[in-house]
User: What shape does this take?
Amino acid sequence: MLESYVSPLLMSYVNRYIKNLKPSDLQLSLWGGDVVLSKLDLRLDVLEQELKLPFTFLSGHIHELRIHVPWTKLSSEPVVITINTMECILKLRDGATDDNESCTSSSTNRSVSESSKNASKPRRLQQAPSDPDLPPGYVQSLIRRVVNNVNIVVNNLILKYVEDDIVLSVNITSAECYTVDDLWDRAFMDVISPELVLRKVINFSDCTVCLDKRNASGKIEFYQDPLLYKCSFRTRLHFTYDNINAKIPAVIKIHTLVESLKLSLTDQQLPMFIRLMALGVALYYGEMGVHREGEREENSSLRESLPESCVFLPGHYTYQHDDITCSPADVMVEGSEASLAGQYFQGEDEDQGWVSWAWSFVPAIVSAEEEEGEGESGGESQDGGASRPQQQSHRDPVVSVGFYCTKASVTFKLTESCSESSYYSPQKVKSREVLCVEQEGITVEALMMGEPFFDCQVGVVGCRAVCLKGIMGVRDFEENMNRREEDAVFFRCGDTLSVKGMTYLTNSLFDYRSPENNGVRAEFILEANLHKETYTETAGVQRYGAFYMDYLYTMENSGSRVCTGPQEFSALHKDEPPLQESSVKRIVIGPLDVQLHSSAVHRILKMIACTLDHEYHPYCKPQQPDVVEECAGVTVEQVAALEEFIPTRQTSVTLMRATVTIPAAEYNILHLILPVILGHKVSTAQTSAPQFQLLRPLPALQLQFERVTFEHSVPMYEEEVTRTACSMNKPSDTLLHHCYTHCYLKVFEFAVGLTVIGSEGGFLPLIPIIPSFSTALYGKQLRLPAYWSRKCSVAVSECVFELPQVCVQVTRAQVQLLQCMFHSWTHSVGGGACSIISDTLINHAYKTTGVKSVCSAPVLEVCVQRVELKVCVRPALWCVSGTLGAVKVCARTPGEKDELVPLVQGPSDTTDLHTSRWLIGSRKPASLLSPDLLQISLQLPQQEQTLNPIETSSTHTSLISTLNRGAVLLVSVQGMAVNVDPVLFSWLLFHPQRTTSSNRQTQQVSMVMKKRREDEASVGSTPLTKPTSNPSDYTSSPVKTKTITESRPLSAPVKVFPSSEESHLSQEERMKNLITHTWNAVKRLTLQVELQSCCVFVPLDSLPSPSTLLCGDIPGTVRSWYHSQACMPGTLVLCLPQISVLSAGHRHMEPLQDIPFTVPRPVLEEGDAFPWTVCVSQLSVYSLLGQQRSLSVLDPVGCTSTLALTAPKLQPDTKQAFIMCLHVDLQPVHLKCSNPQVQLLYGLWSRWSQILSVFERMQSRGSHRQSSGFADSTAPPAGPSSPVQSSVGTVPPDTSTYSPSADLGSPTEGDSVHTEEPVVCESMTLEQKTCSFSGASGKFSVWMQWMLPKLTVKLFSTDHTSKINELCVIAELEDLSASVDVQDVYTKVKCKVGSFHIDHYKHRRRPRLWKCLTSSTDS
Assistant: This one.
C-alpha cells in the first residue's frame, strides 16, 4: 500500500527533529489523515549538526504541529505541515569568543551521545512491508511528487539570539512554502523532462525584528522601538536538474523581493546593530575559529562512537546489515525504496560549510543502483583516503541567492526615558527621529559554486539622507519651521526608479525577461577573468547608478589537484602545487551631492558618538607573535614556487563626480559632541542649546571631484608569508612586497569654489578659488612588524605624495569670508554661529560672473608646481625627502584691462642680479628644464621598540636606543625673485565699504517670529528631554534646565577645540628648554645647506608684467620697464646673499637622496658635527631710477663664519654647560648714498610706516574681536545675563565686533574702547641678564668675534651754489674688529679700529675730475 512508503518517510522526518515522540501514536494518527501534536521539544543537537552554524540552541519548542495527508489524493493534493508557534533561542558558541581551544559546546556533546544511541538500536521501529503490486518505478515517482509538493505553513515563528547584553528577536506571523508552476501560481507540479525544473514560493507575512538591551540579571528594562515592524516579503526558489535521477540540483536560485523595508535604529540600538554586523564579518573571514576545529572534533568523536558495521560516507553515515539501512533518526525501511526514503532528507556533506545545510533540504531522486554505487565508492574513499575530492568535484551545484528591495529607509532616533503614571508599570523609552536614509532599487546577489568560486554583488539605484525634526534641543526641522523639503536633504546619490526603471531586477526570478521565466536555462560566468571583463565598473553604474559593489573570490589549482578544500599555505613543505586564491572587491559610488550644513554635521557626529558608546570587546584579538628564528628547511626552488603566486585581498573604491558643499555653521554645539567621540566627559553646565535661526544668504565652500580612486591590497595569509620572509636572510623583493599593506589614492580634477545659498534655497553660480588639479598618494604599512624586530633594514611604513600643480585664486574679501566661516565651525556661539558674517562682506567676496564688480579688489594668484614628498619609517630611522618644483605668486588688478603683477618667482636665475650690469647685457629666458626650487633630504634617528627576548610575555617590551649616529639634513634652495609691489599691500589692506542692508535681519525675523511666544521666557531653546535620574546615561545628550540656561550669557562662545592648559614658565625656564632642545637636535647633526641668492624688488609704484613676457618673470618685467619709454618708478633692489653651511668633516652630496641613505663620515659623538662653516656671498643693495639710471647702495659683500658649539660633560650633580664660539671674517664693505636714493628710501619708509600702522590697527581690532567674541571655554562668564530673551528682530547688531568696512584712516569707537597700557619693565644691565640666565639654565659661555678689513662710506650730493658741480664725502675705516665674551662672572666687549679718515671731494662735470677739498685722518 502507499501508506507503507509515505508514512515511514514522514515519521522519519518528524522523529528526526522532535524528541520524546511515540512512533506508534504518530503512525496511528497518520492513518487517519490528520495528526495534531502539542508541546513538542526540538532535538537541538540534530539542528546544530545539520545547520552547522556557530550558534548553540538554548531551547526549542513547538506549541502545535499539524500534519494533513490526503491519502485518497496524494497524486493531486499536497501534504500540508502546519506549525503553530515555534520558538527557538540561540546564543554564540562558548568557544567562539575564547582562544579557539575547544569549539564544541554542550549541545554538540549531546549530539554525539544521542546519535550513538540512535545508531545502536536500528530495529526498534516497525519495518514497512513491501507491496508486490506496486512497481519500484511507480513508488519512486509517487514519493518524488509527494515530497516536491509538500506545503509547510508556520504561524508565529519566534527566534531569539542573546549575546552579552544584546537580545535580538525575530517574529514572523505567518510563513508558507508551496510549489508553483511556470507562472509562479500555486499548483501541483513535478520534475519532468525536458525542462527538469522545480519552482517553489515562500511568503512571509508581518516580520518584526526587535533589538533590546538586557541588564546583568537578564531582564529588559527599556523596550526599544522595533528594528523592523510588520514587513512582508516573498521568496521564489528555482531548481534545475541535469537529469531525472540527479541527486542534487545543478542550479539553485533563491531570490527574495521586498516592496517596502523600513528600519528603525535608536541611539542604544546602533552599537548593538554594529556589533551584530561585526559578528557576521568575523564569522565570514573565519576570525573566530568556530567551524573547522569543532567539526573535526565532532566527526572524530562520531567515528569513535559508531559501531564497526557502520560505513562512514562523505556526507552521512548508514548502518548496513542484511540489506537494511538505518538513518540517524531511528527509521529503518526494508528494500531499496526504503533506503531511498531513509536517505532522502540527508545532508550532502557535513564539512562543506554553511551552504551545505541548505542542500540537504533540496529534493533529489536517486536510483537504487546509484545509491549502492555511492556507498561502495564511499567505503573505498574511507579506506583509500584520496578518492573523495574527485568524487565531489562534479557535484558542486551553482547556487544563486538574491535579495531585492524596491524601497527602503533607515531612520535614526534619539531616545529618552519616560515614566508611566502607574508606579508598578515598567519604565519606557520615548524616541525622537533625527535622521533618515532612503534608498531605492536595492540588489544583493550572491553566486557560488562550492568553494572554488564565490561572487557577491550589491547595487543601489538611488539614495538620499534627510534631516528630521530637531537635534539635541535645536529645532531646525520642526514642522512649524516651514522649511522646504529640499533643505532637509543633505545627501543625494544616483537616480530614482522612475528614471532608471526596474534595472535592479535584471535576470532575477522577478524579472519577466529572465531566462528562467522564458523556459531557457540560465548561463553563469564562473571564470575570474571573464567575470571582470563582463561586470565592469561602467556596467555597474549603468545598471544601478548610486552604489555598486562586486566581491569575487576564486580558488584555482596550478596543478592537477582538484580544488575542493581550503588552501593550506604551508606549501613550502609539500610537493603538491599550491592553490591560487584571489579576492577582489570593487566598489563604485555614482555621482553624489553632499551638503554638510550644521544640521547634517551634528546629526552625523551624534550617530558616531552613539556608535562608540559601548563596552564590547572585539571578536578577534590580535596575538603578539613570538620572535621567529631562521628556518633552515626552505629551499630556493620552494621559495620560487611560492613567489609565482601569493594570495592577496584587493579592494578598489571609485568615487565618480562628487560635490561636497560646506556652508557656514548656522549653529554650533560641537563642543557637546566631539568630547564624547574623543572619549572625554561633558560637564552638564555646558549643555544648553542655541536658538536656531535660518540665515540667508549663507556662504558656502564647495568641493568638486571628477573621480577619486582608492586601492587597497593586503596579503590573504599574512602570518604565513611574514614567517617565510622574515626567516630568510635576504628575502626577495616579491616576497617583501606581499608583507605590506599597500594603499593608493588618486584624485582627479579636484576643484574648490565659493558659492552662496540664496533666500530661495538654491545655490548661486560657483566662483572658483582653486581650479581643478589632480594628485596622488601612495602608502604601505608592514604587516606584523613584531616578526621583523631583528631586521632594522626593513621599512615599517612608507608614504609618497605627488602634486603636479595647484593654483589658488582669491581676493582679500574672500579670505576674510573663509576665516569667518572657519570660526563659525570652531567656536560655539549661542546666538548663531555665523552672526559675525555680514551681508557687506558676502557681497564683496562673491562676485557673479557677468555682473559689474562692486569693488576693485585685486586677485591674488598662487601657483605651486611639482611637489613630491616621500616619508620612510624604519625601526631606527625616520626619513623624509622631497622636492618643490616652482612657486609663482601674481596679483591681478581689476579694471577695464586686467593687469598681471608678478610678486614671487621661484626658481629664478639670480646669479648675476647682485649688480646692475644684468640690465645692460643680454639675459637668457627662463628654461623649462630649470632645477627644482627646493630639494630636501632629512634623516632622523629614533628609538626602536622591539620585543625583549628575555621576557616571556608579549606585553613586556624594552626600548633599545639606536641613537648611535646623528641626524642628516641636506637642503638646496634655488634663487628666487620677489617683487614687493604696492598692489600686494592693496590686497592685504583691502576692506569692503560699509553698506546698510536689512535683508539678513528680516530673513531671521520671518523664520522665528512664529515661535516667539513659546520661547520668550527662556534664553536657549525649550528642552526636548527631561534629565534622567542616572547621570551616566546619555552623557552626550542635551540636559538643559532653566537654571543652567540662565547662568550663561546670551552670546557666550565656547571653543570647539579648547587649547590645552600650558604651564606657566618663566622666561629663563623657557630659554633653558629652548637651548636644551636645540642642542639635542644639532649635537649630532650632519648639515648641508645651500641657499642661492634671493633678489627683492621694492618699487614705489606698481610694475605690471608686459604681455610679451612669460607670466611671472620678475627680472624680465623689471628689465622691460627699465628699457621702456615710460618712466620707471623708483625701485630699491635688495639682493640677499648666497648662503652655504657645512658641518665639520662633511663632503658635499646631492641634496636629493634616495632614502634611507648613508653619509661618508657619520657623526658618532656629541659635538663632532661642529664647527660649522658658514659662507655668505653676493649681498648687495642698489636702486633703479628713471631714465635708465642705476645707483649702488651696497656693493657685493660676503663673509666666512665658523660656528662651534659644545656642551662638556661635568659632574652629575652640576648643571649642564654650553659653550658657543663664533668667528666672522667679513669682506670689505662699500656703502654709497645720494640724494635720489635718500628720496627713494624716504618714500618707501613713509609708505611702509603707514601700511604697518594700519595693519597693526587691524590686528589689534581683530584680537579684540576674538577676545570679546570668542572667549575660552575655561573662562568664567562675565556676568549674569537677562533671563528674558529678546526677539531676534529687535536685537541690535553687535557693535563690539570689528566690521571690515570700518574706516581705517580715522579712529573709531573700537579704538577708544580698546586701549593698551604700556608695558612697564625694569631696566637690567647686560651683566645682570647674563647672570640671571646662567643661573637658571646652567653655565653658558659665549665668545663672538667679527673681523672687517675695510669699511667705506660714500655720500654724494649736488652743489646748490653751482648745479654743474657734485660733492662727495668719503669715510674709510680699516682693520675693524669686535669681540664679545660672556662668562658666568663677567661680560667683556672689545672694539678696535685700525685707521679712520674722511675726504671731501668736489666733481666738475666738464673736466670730469674730482678735487679733494678737505681731508682728515685718525689712527
